[in-house]
């Protein structure tokens, strides 16, 4: 378990699965994702087996104050141990949004990836329609560095998938300045 101020993150356990599935299947999350298909309990159990055995593609519960107060999840996606880079994703559960947990979680995750996991570059992909996430990610230090054009189909139309990244040196500069 990793702690950072009044938040932290830990492994996903079986007891967390219901809450994670309900949040995942909520329209506000589902329609932001690359794959907007609703997840069933059986599919989620298979997913849980998979993420539990994989060190480079996994999911963690974000909590506040104590480990049982789960406020969201973050995903480590395709950690590349040779090139020291990784993709990440995050979902703060609905009732905890707009309280500063998103920005604090980005800071916590960057600190962990850059300072403990020796990652050199972190990147994320966000649909151009996901304004909240694009703003929050840039407020956390990510910079837009490209896009995969017309690669997300939503509401009857193709949208760009925006690529954001932050390097270790950018992270150090950004968070030193923010102090
Ligand atoms: C994106 C997300 C993680 C942000 O988490 P959050 O806890 O709600 O964010 P915070 O409360 O820390 O606020 C983020 C910042 O973005 C700002 N912001 C968010 N949406 C905004 C908007 N539409 N216009 C202007 N500012 C906006 C907030 O004001 C805040 O900045 P501030 O502290 O300077 O006021 C959350 O909304 C979420 O989980 N969304 C659904 C899943 C998702 O899209 N995930 C992709 C993330 S990679």
Write the layout of secondary structure elements.
Elements (H helix, E strand, L loop, with lengths): L1 E3 L2 E5 L5 H8 L2 H4 L10 H13 L4 E7 L5 E11 L4 E8 L8 H16 L4 E7 L3 H9 L3 E12 L2 E11 H11 L1
Parallel strand pairs: 5-6
Antiparallel strand pairs: 1-2, 2-3, 3-4, 4-5, 6-8, 7-8
The chain binds coenzyme A (COA).
Description:
By secondary structure, the chain is of the alpha+beta class. It has a single domain, classed as Aminopeptidase (3-Layer(aba) Sandwich), CATH 3.40.630. The chain contains six helices and eight strands. It has an eight-stranded mixed sheet with strand order 1-2-3-4-5-6-8-7. A hairpin with a 2-residue loop joins β7 and β8. The model has no long low-confidence stretch (mean pLDDT 95). Bound molecules: coenzyme A. Coenzyme A (COA) binds next to β5, α4, β6 and α5.
